[in-house]
Write a structure and sequence with these properties.
The chain is mainly β. The protein has three domains: 66 residues, no CATH class; 472 residues, 8 Propeller (Methanol Dehydrogenase, Chain A); 144 residues, Cytochrome c-like domain (Cytochrome Bc1 Complex, Chain D, domain 2, Orthogonal Bundle), CATH 1.10.760. It is 11% helix and 28% strand. The strands form ten sheets. Strands 1-31-32-33-34 form a five-stranded mixed β-sheet, with no helix packed on it. The N and C termini lie far apart (51 Å).
């Protein structure tokens, strides 16, 4: 990168990367188009993936293979939430900006850790009900003296970077629908880009662009057709009519909105002047219920290339046509220059949930390669390079009957939101991959599907029946029989692993990989010119040699981190920062701990206060339960339909085995029906469950105590 260095480079960076460059002293320039365009050569970390192209590769070399053994804690800070922390902090001009669970924003002196300000958007606790996977926030964006954050309840807020005071706030979503925002905004050409999530519950995905100075909407692009068949007067109207509408057939998508939510990846490429957006899964999951099992359902599970000023469509590539399995393509998109077959190619790369690593021409979307980055993936045998379509294994398309399909990956994906990093020196992409099979089961009867707004609506197993007297005649009995048959069906024993894969996108194979036993306790990655890859595993932040994967440093942080580390330099010192916090919809098995920001440097001598021991409440004593008048069979169906998505042992939400509430009829009714714990996130379910339903669920809980509450649907 030597010839390109020199423009916006600071003296500190020049020293760190071993160049003798005469340059101006450090001064705070506004974070504008030009500064973001030159972020590659900066010692700051100015946007979610460090640069617009999001390679998460830092040119800093002070922390390298030879020096990393001296890496120690420089400072740390603790947050006021014990939910999952997924954010990549940003650093600019000596200040770290980060977001935490519940979309709170914090600013710290990046040298000392002194807190400069914090901002709490006061997201209502009940918003948690609309999340698939905890109350996460993956980060903020910077532009012209402001910090931008998307909030869990769908707002986009501009904050003064000096004070944390709100400059403007807009509601980007329909509050009557279960939309959420967990992704980081990005700013390109003065427009703040923000997506949304909620496809499991039932929403219509779109990406929006707002003017950074005023908060006025510039354009919006919908990922699925308008369910009423009307124009949206949006940037997507033309291409939906031309390409997408004919790929959808009458079905439940007209109620749910079809999904396609772009909840993570929004990437800008300076060279082609294109914006790349990754889109989510179908809603409901079940293609048969959603769209009669017919059609590709554009633009689900796709990479879309749009013009940044207008949102105008340029090209798309659909990774999983007719998605049936929650195979989102919202995962990280990365812009890179590769030498393929002796020719320089400007490409985008993605490792979406479906387990294939895609390399596409950035300007045209031409598919250059698609290979399994996860050899355990078995839902498809390959991708047909002529059609660009996956070759599905027969039997994976469960539908409108009791057929099930055990396959890999499941809805967790072979790769999910955890960021990957690309080291252009070794040519390797470091993918935090996942090996987790899943048994998908269809629905007993498509006619039984009832869209319950605000809760999960998958159209699989019992995820379609309704309580509160809304179920179709006989639907509860059909669902109970179906669930009982599913529970008896033999399932292959599967081992779940997290695997760090060092993928060579030119050779189209893994150069090395490391498997870890705990699926949940591993994080996103960072690559540096110091020849290192950083990743957290369990409680440990680890440095690995990029070339071999050999571990060269490890530091016990006292609790798990799932977020990607980042790095920056100030006054000739390189720092490494990472968010600590267990959660993100899945449990590492560790107790919940307050989130922390951990910042490292060479010869750092700080010591974080050890986390106090956590004692779990005792198991509830079922012998003390008040006898129930409810029907446990109905209760089991309704528990699976409305409760299990949060209250199962693999989730971070309260373990019902340890709750005394189900032992008492009145207490259970107060919480589940009347919403006594709504501020903590446990909303009233009176909309979905009448008092008989609530008591039936209690009967089921008493019956299964102290057996496992694990349910598969
Ligand atoms: Ca999903």
């Amino acid at each position: 990168m030597g010839s390109r260095v020199g423009r916006a480079i600071s003296t500190g960076l020049a020293v760190l990367i071993g160049l003798s460059v005469q340059s101006a002293p450090i001064f705070a320039q506004p974070i504008d188009q030009s500064r973001l365009a030159n972020a590659e050569n900066s010692s700051d970390w100015l946007t979610y993936g460090r640069t617009w192209g999001e390679q998460r590769f830092s040119p800093l070399t002070q922390i390298g293979t030879a020096s990393v053994s001296r890496l120690g804690l420089a400072w740390w800070a603790e947050f006021d939430t014990d939910h999952g922390q997924e954010a990549t902090p940003l650093e600019a001009d000596g200040v770290i900006y980060t977001s935490t669970a519940w979309s709170k924003v914090f600013a710290f002196d990046a040298r000392t850790g002194r807190q400069l300000w914090s901002f709490d958007p006061q997201v209502p606790g009940v918003t948690q009900l609309a999340t698939c996977c905890d109350v996460n926030s993956r980060g903020v964006a910077l532009w012209m003296g402001r910090v931008y954050v998307g909030t869990l309840d769908g707002r986009l807020i501009a904050l003064d970077a000096k004070t944390g005071r709100s400059a403007w706030a807009v509601q980007t979503t329909d509050r009557a629908r279960p939309y959420t925002i967990t992704g980081a905004p990005r700013v390109v050409k003065g427009l703040v880009l923000i997506g949304n999530g909620g496809a499991e519950l039932g929403v219509r995905g779109y990406v929006s662009a707002y003017h950074a100075d005023t908060g006025k909407l510039a354009w919006r692009f919908y990922m699925t057709p308008n369910p009423q068949g009307k124009p949206d007067h949006a940037a997507s109207d033309k291409v939906l009519a031309a390409k997408a509408n004919a790929t959808w057939f009458d079905g439940a998508w007209k109620q749910t909105g079809g999904g396609g939510t772009p909840w993570d990846s929004i990437v800008y490429d300076i060279k082609t002047d294109l914006l790349f957006v990754g889109t989510g899964n179908g809603s409901p999951w079940n293609h048969t219920i959603r769209s009669q099992g017919r059609g590709d359902n554009l633009f689900l599970s796709s990479i879309l290339a749009l013009k940044p000023e207008t949102g105008e469509y340029v090209w798309h590539y659909q990774t999983t046509p007719g998605d049936n399995w929650d195979y989102t393509a919202t995962q990280q998109i990365m812009v890179a220059d590769l030498n393929i077959g002796g020719k320089p190619r400007h490409v985008v790369m993605q490792a979406p949930k479906n387990g294939f690593f895609y390399v596409l021409d950035a300007a045209t979307g031409e598919l250059l390669s698609a290979d399994k980055f996860a050899p355990w993936v078995n839902w498809a045998t390959g991708v047909d390079m002529k059609t660009g379509r996956p070759t599905e294994r027969p039997g994976v398309r469960y539908g409108n009957d009791a057929k099930s399909s055990t396959q890999n990956p499941g809805p967790l994906g072979a790769h999910n939101w955890k960021p990957m990093a690309f080291d252009p020196k070794t040519g390797l992409v470091f993918i935090p991959a996942q090996d987790a099979s899943f048994t998908y089961a269809g629905a007993p009867n498509a006619q039984d599907f009832r869209y319950s707004i605000g809760v999960w609506n998958l159209g699989t197993g019992v995820q379609g029946v309704a309580g509160n007297g809304q179920a179709a005649p006989g639907a509860i009995a059909r669902a109970a029989a179906f669930a009982a048959a599913q529970a008896k069906a033999p399932r292959p024993a599967t081992k779940e692993r997290a695997v760090l894969v060092a993928w060579d996108p030119v050779a189209r194979k893994a150069r090395w990989s490391i498997a870890r036993d705990n699926l949940w306790a591993s994080s996103g990655t960072l690559a540096t010119a110091g020849g290192l890859v950083f990743q957290s595993v369990g409680h440990d932040l680890k440095a690995l040699a990029a070339v071999t994967g050999k571990e060269v440093w490890s530091y016990d942080m006292g609790a798990p981190s799932i977020a990607a580390p980042m790095t920056y330099a100030l006054d000739g010192i390189q720092y490494l920062a990472v968010m600590l916090g267990n959660g993100g919809g899945t449990s590492t098995g560790d107790p919940r701990r307050p989130g922390r920001l951990m910042v490292f440097r060479l010869d750092g001598k700080a010591k974080a206060t050890p986390f106090p021991p956590v004692s779990e409440p005792p198991l509830a004593d079922v012998r003390k339960a008040e006898a129930s008048t409810g029907d446990p069979v109905t209760g089991g169906v309704l528990f699976r339909r409305y409760c299990a998505v949060c209250h199962s042992p693999t989730r971070v939400n309260p373990d019902l085995h340890r709750s005394q509430v189900p032992l008492s009829r009145d207490q259970f009714r107060a919480v589940v029906h009347d919403g006594a714990l709504r501020d903590g996130g446990m909303a009233s379910f009176a909309k979905y469950l009448d008092l008989n339903d609530v008591e039936a669920i209690r009967a089921f809980l008493i019956q299964v105590y102290p057996k496992s509450l694990t349910t598969r649907n």
